Amino acid sequence: MALLKNKVAIITGAGRGLGEAYAKCLAAQGAAVVVNDLGKDESGEYLAEQVVNAIIATGGKAAANTADIATMSGGASLLQTALDAFGSADILINNAGILRDKSFLKLTEADWDSVLGVNLKGMFTVTQPVFAWMKENGGGVIVNTSSTSGLVGNFGQLNYAAAKAGVFGMSNVLTIEGAKAGIRVWTLAPAATSALTAPLMNDEQKQLLDPAHVAEAVLYMVSELSGNKTGHCLFASGQSIRELKLVSAEGIRGRGENSDLTAEGIAAASDAIFLDAPTMVINDFAK
């Protein structure tokens, strides 16, 4: 039986790469899919429409949305497309993202604004109306795309990392605010082959990091297979699936006759305050 029968999913940045893989995977499992992407191919045809046509050709249901989600009106249009075409909005996958990689001192204001506009503001513009609809209509599932660049760091990606770290915080708040309304929220840090990373990979790496592998993790997240789980951040690739989370060392406390929270006391107790190893070590290619 299809895992997503009668469900409606909205996916941003779904004209190619990971988003396209998600759209086709969810459609194959019975979901009607809103494919958002403003990109065009060399002939001027919208990528979103190409993905929609491919889904329909295999018997699935899909509708295209080519709005710019960096604007409030564009973000809100995705919910309207879903309601007009299919009458519901049960799943939202915030996948859209762009890169403008430069080392910190070479970043321009335009580099900062464009990346934050799509990767972080775009998540706000799309999610707010969908979240409101889900709250009034029995809940749903939201998957927000972060990155190891934001959770761990990566040279030359300060703007991208800032946006993706913001996604992690946004998801944590949405988890809290959505709990009573039956809205489950996930954070995803994917590693997959893309137009940017493919030239750097050999054939074996490309296979291991095929976007289809990450799509299976997303299918788990948004289906009943994940039960009532919410608030988790998963790293997903063809090589591994693992939860990423913040951890705390034992530390020292400010109570008791032997406590010392002065600078000297902190130095003396550093073994208890600092972790022995980095909290996250990710060896797979990051998105």
What does this structure look like?
This protein is α/β, with parallel strands linked by helices and 287 residues long. The chain has one domain: NAD(P)-binding Rossmann-like Domain (Rossmann fold). 41% of the residues lie in helices and 14% in strands. It contains ten helices and eight strands. It has an eight-stranded mixed sheet, sandwiched between helices. A hairpin with a 4-residue loop joins strand 7 and strand 8. The mean pLDDT is 92.
Give a short account of the largest sheet: 8 strands, mixed
CATH topology-level name:
Rossmann fold
Give the C-alpha Rg. Answer: 20 Å
Number of domains: 1
Give the uncertain stretches in residue-range form: none
Strand content: 5-15%
Distance between the termini: 32 Å
CATH H-level superfamily title: NAD(P)-binding Rossmann-like Domain
- Total number of helical segments? 10
- Helix-strand makeup class: alpha/beta
General form: globular
In CATH's first tier, which class applies?
Alpha Beta
- The number of strands is 8
Strand order of the largest sheet: 3-2-1-4-5-6-7-8
Brief summary:
Belongs to the short-chain dehydrogenases/reductases (SDR) family. This is SDR family NAD(P)-dependent oxidoreductase. The chain has helices at residues 17-28, 47-57, 72-86, 109-136, 148-151, 158-178, 203-208, 211-222, 263-268, 270-273, and strands spanning 8-11, 32-36, 61-65, 91-94, 140-145, 183-190, 232-236, 241-243.
Characteristic key phrases:
287 residues, alpha/beta, Rossmann fold, 10 helices, globular
Topology:
Elements: E1 8-11, H1 17-28, E2 32-36, H2 47-57, E3 61-65, H3 72-86, E4 91-94, H4 109-136, E5 140-145, H5 148-151, H6 158-178, E6 183-190, H7 203-208, H8 211-222, E7 232-236, E8 241-243, H9 263-268, H10 270-273
Parallel strand pairs: 1-2, 1-4, 2-3, 4-5, 5-6, 6-7
Antiparallel strand pairs: 7-8
Helix pairs in contact: 1-8, 3-4, 4-6
